Amino acid sequence: xxxxxxxxxxxxxxxLEQQKQSATLGIWLFLITEVMFFGxxxxxxxxxxxxxxxxxxxxxxxxxIALGATNTxxxxxxxxxxxxxxxxxxxxxxxxxxxxxxxxxxxxxxxxGIKAIxxxxxxxxxxxxxxxxxxxxxxxxxSPYADQVQIFFSFYFTMxxxxxxxxxxxxGILIWxxxxxxxxxxxxxxxxxVEVTGLYWHFVDIVWxxxxxxxxxxxxx
Amino acid sequence: MDHPVVPVKxxxxxxxxxxxxxxLTVWVAFIDFGHGLLNDTVAMSIAVLKxxxxxxxxxxxxxxxxxLWLIAGSSVIWMxxxxxxxxxxxxxxxxxxxxxxxxxxxxxxxPIEQAAPxxxxxxx
Amino acid sequence: MSSAPDTSATAMPKNYLNEKxxxxxxxxxxxxxxxxxxxxxxxxAFFLIGxxxxxxxxxxxxxxxxxxxxxETYNKFFTTHGIVMIFFFLIPSIPAVLGxxxxxxMIGARDFAFPKINLASWYVFMFGGVLALxxxxxxxxxxxxxxxxxxxxxxxxxxxILAVCGAFIAGFSSIMTGLNFIVTIHKMRAPGLTWFRLPLxxxxxxxxxxxxxxxxxxVAITLVMIFVERAFGFGIFDPALGGDPILFQHxxxxxxxxxxxxxxxxxxxxxxxxxxCFSKRRLYGYRVIVFSSLAIAVIGFFVWGHHMFVSSxxxxxxxxxxxxxxxxxxxxxxxxxxxxxxxxxGSVSLASPMLYAFGFLGLFVIGGLTGLFLSTLATDxxxxxxxxxxAHFHYVxxxxxxxxxxxxxxxxxxxxxxxxxxxxxxxxxxxxxxIGFNLTFFPQFQLGVHGMPRRYHVYPEEFQVLHIASSTGAxxxxxxxxxxxxxxxxxxxxxxxxxxxxxxxxGLEWETDSPPPTHNFxxxxxxxxxxxxxxxxxxxxxxxxxxxxxGHV
Lengths: 221, 124, 553
Known about the structure:
The complex is a heterotrimer of chains A (about 220), B (about 120) and C (about 550). Chain A is mainly alpha-helical and about 220 residues long.
């Protein structure tokens, strides 16, 4: 066994299958912690929405559905390219793996770009709008529910902000993977890093799948 | 634990389904089902369905060992514990007050849902 | 000590300690045993800081007036004590030191599944710790370790943000450790080591890791909310906007109550090992103890509201949480009964680690039973936020957690360092610590019942006698720790060479050298016996076997 030990098998594992299973188990356990992390925010959202339904509908109405829906499409598309990157590595298509990783990076960056546009609309609402939706001292909205709407926007920014931070970290990892994939490091015998990152990326996608209806689509009817 | 290679066609089908569901969730958001709760239920059902598609196919849960199902399931269960027990507090806060109301039969008993924000404004 | 042992380093065979001795070989090590030593040294430093803070305010409390500290400074001292002891000593103590060292060795693995993450966890921990210390030195924090809103987010004029960041970052380190534990226990056990042959310490680590993974992220996001509210002025818990500070308490205690089990479950694991070894007996009710550990881990998540009985959460919620809390007592009591049944008919020896185990049994029973007073809704309203609570959780945290840590440290010290400490002094220190501890905290039960509230530094004169007793006890306790530190350091150089299995214990960690070689075993061990098989002769034991009963494999 020792003579045929490949360089990508770490010293403390007996065989590749053990290493692969450990990596998969590890990332799933990590994703539990991520679920609970966002879970705290969802809990706050549910509690306050239960207390202040009108304010929540009012706040949600100030968000841009078109941009939110576009972002949903972009992110799901990036999940597809991520899944295809993993698949390419699995079948030993090293070049395809790199290309799909690059596509995922581009789509992820697009998501962040659209998010930035949305944020900027809140920061610079334009001269004729009579409200300012960044929570804090300057928050202003002509409504009896203005204070509670501020809480809605605190959650909007914290939730999407935390999500965006996860995206940024994910893109960072993807860039690193892309550089290694260009060198052909990932192939049918060893693709743990791509697979693990893929699982993380899909999880971030799932968070957005819930954020989109909860933040953008309530009280529209 | 063996990870079979999923055909590209499957991935594309799932992607298509996710797109359709995204369109659907936007569309139904503008339909009035008569009760807000119903709209929420529909929106959340679609979101759960989308999440399941991503979990089962994109994240290969379908082809994975039982332990990963257990892990994924336990995170949902713990979310439910956290949210459920916290709501036990919020949903029962008016109980004692509204019982007091009922002790006086002629006093009008405001619906709890509407009384909540006003009552909370004051005393928190 | 009379027969001068060969103390030169060359006498030791090649092991993880002497293979490389450069500073960078320590700071960049991926060896779980060295990382455990890094943790040990840093945790003892934090323990010292937290302990000194406690001594300062115990001195202040010797008189009813404020003569050493002003009220604000007093608040800063007890906050430092709480933050440092909980986030930077108790939560990581047994998992990060003993767990890091022992988990791979006990299951016959060469290392953790993710050695780099393991090393990263130490750096992350130190980063968080340094931030918290900077917060303390640069003016302190006076919110208490619980960071209750709205005080922490809107009114406190202190370094709340830094301290919150420190606790937040330290949380990641425990997540990394917990993740490593679970994956390693699942995937890297030696051939023949089935789940029900695992030592109970491993099971305790497994249960602890589950709590860490499910709970810690919630406090992380809670601290993020505090951060955005305080730093950016986002309204989240602000009552002026209709925000609810009680929501913060729900989120905070959802983690911080299970965190109690992060501190106590590992100690229970250590005590199981100690009792089995020093009774020379397979643990009575092994499976019951396994499942009770898992049960505690799960039930621990259902009870957090008992910290909030007087917080204006709804009466119904208080009732529910009070009811649920009683269920934690069941698995805990089961463990206790099984330990006592193991002692019964065992050939018990009173070595120093066993003294700590006995200390744990007695003190934890007191801590647990007084917990029942507090989980009862009606009595809690009287006892809430009094010294009764302080005494209760110190009996659990120090009487349980720290006693378990010290017992384990003594038990595995020969394995970790390869040398024995002087047994006579160790017994003396254990007794001093036990007396000091009880003298410190038992009077606090009295104080609490008579109505002395916690977190006050000025108090009516009739409480002074009990406060003086408590402060004296704190000094005795500190003295005990000092003796212990002194002889442990002394033993590093002058201690007797321990040999593979000084306690004639069972378990894979005793089959390898002391200290173990870098990759733990010279060849992968194969497990053929059930756990704690004292009926079989150990290859490494120094004495003939106590029992020669037959058993089945």
